[in-house]
Amino acid sequence: MTTPVIGVLALQGDVREHLIALAASDAVARPVRRPEELAEVDGLVVPGGESTTMSKLAVLFGMVQPLRERIAAGLPVYGTCAGLIMVADKILDPRSGQETLGGIDMIVRRNAFGRQNESFEAAVEVAGVDDGPVEGVFIRAPWVESVGAEVEVLAEHGGHIVAVRQGNVLATSFHPELTGDHRVHALFVDMVRAAVQ
């Protein structure tokens, strides 16, 4: 069984927590900031943080086009919270100049669950994750307004879509990297392993 090399886009957000979760899920995890580092990974996590800031930094670091090209070519990607926004094909209410990387045929709404002081935790049943619900940490979380025909809805909360997959791209509104439960990361590592075989 191969040990995949998975990067975490280290422009902004909870990079360290994802590196820990990936390492605990039998992957070699490393931060990625530049195109040459992106070229060396089998998969990529786009972490939570602030999607507008992340978008601007991706432009600044010359990462937008290389990321779009690798995602379009089948690179497995997992986006959490702001990362879900980054892998969406469309944002319902983008900030001026905000760009996405694409990868999932969906429309997302930023900060849909409320502001920082309305953050919460909830048990979420995620299709493909065994042994009961995962603890979802929702921090200024987006939700998915609508999905295209190729998108698999993996979880909902409060009547809203909060986890999706399309091909090699996985995304959640919540932050599993903050809980110590690495089952969603293990699901992604399995996706990467299947893609590189």
Show the helix and strand layout.
Layout: E1 5-9, H1 15-24, E2 28-32, H2 35-38, E3 43-46, H3 51-60, H4 64-72, E4 77-80, H5 82-86, E5 88-91, E6 104-109, E7 120-124, E8 134-138, E9 143-147, E10 152-157, E11 160-166, E12 169-172, H6 183-196
Parallel strand pairs: 1-2, 1-3, 3-4, 4-12, 5-6
Antiparallel strand pairs: 6-9, 7-8, 10-11, 11-12
Give an overview in words.
With 197 residues, the protein is of the alpha/beta class. The chain is built from six helices and twelve strands. It has helices at 15-24, 35-38, 51-60, 64-72, 82-86, 183-196; strands at 5-9, 28-32, 43-46, 77-80, 88-91, 104-109, 120-124, 134-138, 143-147, 152-157, 160-166, 169-172. A seven-stranded mixed sheet has the order 2-1-3-4-12-11-10.
Brief overview, please?
The chain is 26% helix and 30% strand.
- Count every beta strand, where a strand is a DSSP E run of 2 or more residues: 12
Q: Using only CA atoms, what is the Rg?
A: 15 Å
Structural class by SSE content? alpha/beta
Which percent range describes the beta-strand content?
Answer: 25-35%
Q: Helical content, roughly?
A: 25-40%
- End-to-end Cα distance, whole Å, is 9 Å
Weakly predicted, low-confidence segments? none
Mean pLDDT: 94
Order of helices and strands: EHEHEHHEHEEEEEEEEH
Note the main sheet. 7 strands, mixed
Number of helices: 6
Q: Which overall shape is indicated by the principal axes computed on the Cα atoms? A: globular
* Strands in their spatial order, largest beta sheet: 2-1-3-4-12-11-10
